[in-house]
Design a protein that fits this description.
The protein has 109 residues and is an alpha+beta fold. It has a domain of 68 residues: Nuclear Transport Factor 2, Chain: A (Roll). The chain is built from two helices and six strands; from the N terminus they run αβαβββββ. Strands 5-4-3-2-1-6 form a six-stranded mixed sheet, with helices on one face. A hairpin with a 4-residue loop joins strand 2 and strand 3. This is Beta-lactamase-inhibitor-like PepSY-like domain-containing protein. Keywords: Signal.
C-alpha cells in the first residue's frame, strides 16, 4: 500500500501540465481627484500627524481624495509643500512646490 501511494504521488504531478498562457494584463490606475474641504474637518489623526511632524509649518488648505486620502498644503516662510496622509494619519508622500495640478477647486458647502 505504501508503494502505491508513493508511485501515485510521483506520477500525479507529471500528469498535470501547466499551460503557459502569455496574456498581457493591463492595470488601469485611476488618478486620485481631490476636493477642497474645510481644514477644521480633517480627521484628528491627520491633524495630530501634522502637529507632530510639521509643527513649524502653517496649514493653509486641505483636500480629500477620491481614494479616502488627504492632501494638505503647508507653508513655512517661502517653502510650500503638499503632504499626503491616509485617514489614520499615516504619512503617504510629500510633494514640493505649490502647483495646482490635481486640485479640484470645488467650493465647500
Amino acid at each position: 500500500m505504501t508503494a502505491a501511494v508513493i508511485v501515485l504521488g510521483i506520477s500525479l504531478p507529471s500528469g498535470v501540465m501547466a499551460e503557459n498562457t502569455n496574456q498581457n494584463v493591463v492595470v488601469a490606475q485611476q488618478e486620485v481627484q481631490y476636493e477642497k474641504m474645510n481644514v477644521e474637518d480633517l480627521p484628528e489623526a491627520v491633524t495630530q500627524a501634522i502637529s507632530e511632524g510639521y509643527a513649524d509649518y502653517t496649514l493653509s488648505e486641505a483636500y480629500m481624495g477620491t481614494d479616502g486620502s488627504y492632501k494638505v498644503k503647508l507653508t513655512k516662510g517661502d517653502e510650500k509643500v503638499k503632504v499626503f496622509f491616509n485617514a489614520s494619519g499615516e504619512f503617504l508622500k510629500i510633494e514640493q512646490g505649490d502647483d495646482q495640478a490635481g486640485d479640484e477647486e470645488v467650493p465647500v458647502e
